[in-house]
Amino acid sequence: MIYQRLSSGILLIAGFLSSHVAGQVTCVPQDGPNLFYDPSFENRDANDWTIITGVGVNRYTSADHSDGSWSAQFGNTEDNLLFQGVWFVIEVGATYNVKFDYKPFYPSTSPQPSSPQQCDINVKYFQPVDTVMSTIRYIYNAGDEPTWQTITGSFEAQAANINVGIAVDCRIAGNDASFFTDFRVFIDNASMVKVGEVCTTATTTTSEATSTTSAEATTTTVPGKCGPKKQVIL
Which H or E run includes 197? Predict the structure, then answer.
């Protein structure tokens, strides 16, 4: 508040009135935590991951990895399946993103193939029907040097209990009847998160000047016959 004395006994009182105005709402993506147990296979615990597989597969290996020191290895048979050993309790209607890192490889101890090899990599969920979220077919030719890549998928939860996993099916390219090949795939760095966002509202403050003018009385003394008189001037 500002006080200012003007001439002729006028007092100016000035102030400010402030108000808050709601501004723009801004939302940014912010996913939930990773729901997978042991996503990089560091614990190598059968209670965390369940593996359904055929012959010739090393369940866990430290030969190559995209995260941590271990990975899971698949191939050399039909439809290897890896999934969490527990059913997730999730929010019906929510959307979840799933990803796995993968790296196809041909063992250095095996002769290079004379014909192309292929691996179908499928991200699946079970609630309770076995459903493929996404699939990638990788074709390998002799001398190729594959690198780590990522396969992603998403789903809207239709049930409160669900399981999620990945299936790998390697065979000679173009020959659906062939199951046995040395072509294999490393799997690592699994992730399943609930899709979400965080929103904030920007608030601005505005000030409006106000003023009030008032008269202030002053007293003066003037001479008179009966002595001094007081005169009030406004």
Answer: strand 197-215
